[in-house]
Amino acid sequence: MTLFSMAAFAAREPWTLSVLLVLNFSLYLLSRMKLVDLWRDIRFFLVQAVIVVILYFLRFGAEGLYPGLRVSMQIFLFFMPGAIFLRTTNSLQLIRSLRRFLSPRFSFVVLCSFRFIPVFFREFQEIAMAQRLRGAPLSPRKMLNPRNWKYAADCLFIPLIVRALRTADEAALSAEARGMRSGADPSFHQQYLFVTPPGQAVQTVPRHPAMRCKGVNNECSYCD
User: Fold this and answer.
1) CA nearest 24: which of 75, 88, 78, 80?
2) Per-residue pLDDT tens for 68-122?
3) Is 199 left (phi over 0), alpha (psi -120 to 50) or beta?
4) I need a surface site. Which of 29, 54, 129, 135 has the fewest CB within 10 A?
5) Rounded to whole angstroms, how far apart are CA atoms 50 and 75?
6) Which PANTHER family does its entry note (predicted)?
C-alpha cells in the first residue's frame, strides 16, 4: 500500500497514472468490496478534482487543464491505497502488528490516525447535511460558484475543527483510562471464539449468586 502511494507522486506521464489507476481498482475489486463503498471513497475526490481543475484553468487557461487533472489524479491515487487498507484491516489486528515494533502509546496514536479518517468523513457529511437544511448554499451545484466558497469555511470547516477537537479530547480520555499514561501495559478489547469439539458438552463455571443473570423464572443454563 505504501509503495502504491509513493508511486502516485512519482508518476508523471498519463500511461503511468493509468496503470496505477487500474492497479488500485483491481486491488479494490479483489478485496471483495462493493461498488457502494467505492463510490463513498471517491466522491470527495471527484469534488476536489473539479475544484483543482477550475483553479488551474483560471490561473493558466487551457494549458492548465492537464496539470490540474494530473495533480487531482495523483492526490486520488495517493489516498486510494489507504482507503483500501482501512476497509480491509481489523483494528485489533493492526494494533497487534504495530505493538511488535512500536510502544503501546505510539501504536495507539498511529491507529487513531488511521481510524479517524472515515470518522471525519462522516462528521463532514453530517455537518454538510445539517447546514444545507438550515439554508446554507452547500449543494454540489451551488459550490461550483466561487461566490459560495466563503460559506464552506464558515459552515463546514469551523464546525469540523470543533468536532475534531472534541473527538481528540474523547480519544485522549479513552487512552488515559486504558493506562497509556501510566507506563503499564494498556488494556484492549478483544473477542475470543471458543469452539467445542463435536460430542463434547460445554463446560460451565459456577458463579456467585449475586452475579447470576436473570433468565426465565430466574434460571439460566449458562449460570447453572
Assistant:
1) 80
2) 888 888 888 888 887 777 777 776 777 777 777 777 777 777 777 777 777 777 8
3) left
4) 135
5) 13
6) PROTEIN ABCI12, CHLOROPLASTIC
